[in-house]
Design brief:
Layout (H helix, E strand, L loop, with lengths): L16 H8 L2 H21 L6 H8 L3 H7 L3 H26 L6 H7 L1 H4 L4 H13 L5 H17 L7 H25 L2 H20 L3
Length: 214
């Protein structure tokens, strides 16, 4: 996974870089940046983080590493943005599954409905990103902390609307930590039966929480 740190000596100081950066902020430049990011994100979703580098990203994007360095502040920045984008895809898929459910769902039903999105195409690379953060927590702290900041607002949104904000936060934090545990257990053991058993216990806890008064 150290390949994610690959940089190219001297490229960051290429003459004219700052001027190109300004043009990269134009609507046309932003569209190009997003196109490159989409291609790199797609490659990560399929191939994961192993052997990720700026040159591999350039091949996936159909460009050169120097072009990527005009739009991104190196391999770490590109990786962080791609991981953010893949999480957004996962969140969008999860919320769509919640919305597709029948009316009158319990909180436990809504939480359970997001599981297929959590083990979708993006799952491998997103879980590898957490592992990378654990491997080098100083350098890749954003890959871990950013995940919580990204997921929590959406978990808050599926809590009962009459709950206090503090109660929503407490329950959402519990759900987030539990789902992460399920994902790690599933990845390590491949035991979906164990995950299902865990979901039954989580559902009972959420049902009790939902039935309780503030």
């Amino acid at each position: 996974m150290n390949g994610a740190a690959v940089g190219v000596p001297g490229d960051d100081a290429t003459p004219g870089r700052a001027g190109y950066r300004r043009s990269a902020g134009s609507p046309r430049g932003e569209a190009r940046r997003r196109e490159l990011l989409d291609r790199v994100s797609d490659d990560l979703a399929v191939n994961g983080l192993v052997d990720f580098s700026l040159r591999r990203a350039a091949r996936a994007a159909g460009t050169t590493h120097k072009v990527l360095l005009y739009y991104f502040d190196g391999a770490d920045d590109l990786l962080a943005q791609a991981i953010f984008q893949l999480r957004q895809r996962r969140i969008g898929n999860a919320l769509a599954m919640v919305a597709a459910g029948p009316e009158g769902q319990t909180l436990a039903d809504r939480v359970r409905s997001v599981w297929p999105a959590l083990i979708g195409e993006e799952s491998r690379v997103l879980d590898q990103a957490i592992g990378l953060m654990m491997y080098d927590p100083v350098r890749y702290v954003e890959l871990g902390q950013g995940a919580s900041q990204q997921y929590l607002p959406h978990l808050l949104s599926i809590c009962p609307p009459d709950w206090t904000e503090q109660r929503k936060l407490e329950v959402s934090a519990m759900v987030l930590a539990t789902l992460r545990g399920f994902l790690i257990d599933w990845l390590v053991s491949g035991d979906m039966a164990g995950v299902e058993a865990g979901f039954e216990s989580l559902a009972r806890a959420l049902d009790r929480e939902e039935a309780a008064r503030d």
